[in-house]
Amino acid sequence: MTDTVLTNHKNLEDQIILVDKPAGISSFGVVAKVRTKLRDEFGHKIKVGHTGTLDPFATGLLILLSGKMTKKSNEFLKLDKTYEATLKLGFTSTTGDPEGEIEEISDKKPELEDIKSTLQNFTGIITQTPPRFSAIKINGQRAYKLARKNQDFEIPSREIEIYFIDILNYDYPELTIRCHVSSGTYIRTLAEDIGESLSTGAYLTSLRRIKVGEYDVKNAKQLEELCYN
After folding, report:
1. Fold entry, domain 2-78+214-228
2. Fold for domain 81-212?
3. Residue ranges, CATH 3.30.2350.10, the chain
């Protein structure tokens, strides 16, 4: 695993590990697999942590830290991020992604120019309310756990910054975008807000993180390659 080291630290137990997370596994699941791999490789338990989760349905760059590098996790959490996302217009999801209950809202087909104009309204510094199904802590408990219990709670809004949103493809009902955003931005919420502004509803059908700061998914290892070779 030495080719995953992106620092000059002398101890190979202290690493920055770039993983291209596949769909269908949680970030914590990836951490567990890499932790097991490192334990087998070095013969003893090594601390491993992530620097910002990806939802199970999402793919792309997941930065893991091992050993003493885990002390630097806050430095990575503050980095901006770039995503590619596909929205399905005309529908909503209770979770903002394919894992929720899907409801058809509208068969209205927005024109491309209307979409471009709407996306411009979401660039710059905006206020966003994180989703109920998120890992944000509310009175010491994760929001998604409270949401699963149908408990009433509020998540405070926050200021985030969206540096750009580019349209990669539009073939109704699917809209694929690339966006560069500040730390703390929820793309599921962005998709829902875009759908609301277009009066069609929207949810994410796919999400891929391609950059965190200057770290690029092109330099990441596939989880299967990393843990099973």
Report:
1. Pseudouridine synthase (3.30.2350)
2. Pseudouridine synthase (3.30.2350)
3. 2-78+214-228, 81-212
Confidence (pLDDT) at 132: 60
Query: Over the stretch 89-116, which tens digit does the pLDDT of each residue have?
Result: 999 998 889 988 999 999 999 999 999 9
The span from the CA of 160 to the CA of 36, in Å, is: 36
pLDDT digits (tens, 9 = 90+) for 103-156: 999 999 999 999 999 999 999 999 997 766 555 555 555 555 555 656 565 667
- Provide the whole-model pTM: 0.87
pLDDT at 226: 80
Which H or E element spans position 77? helix 73-77
Active site residue 55: yes
Q: Write down the catalytic residue from 55, 152, 193, 216.
A: 55
DSSP of 110-175: --HHHHHHHHHTTSEEEEE---SSSS-EETTEEHHHHHHTT-------EEEEEEEEEEEEEETTEE
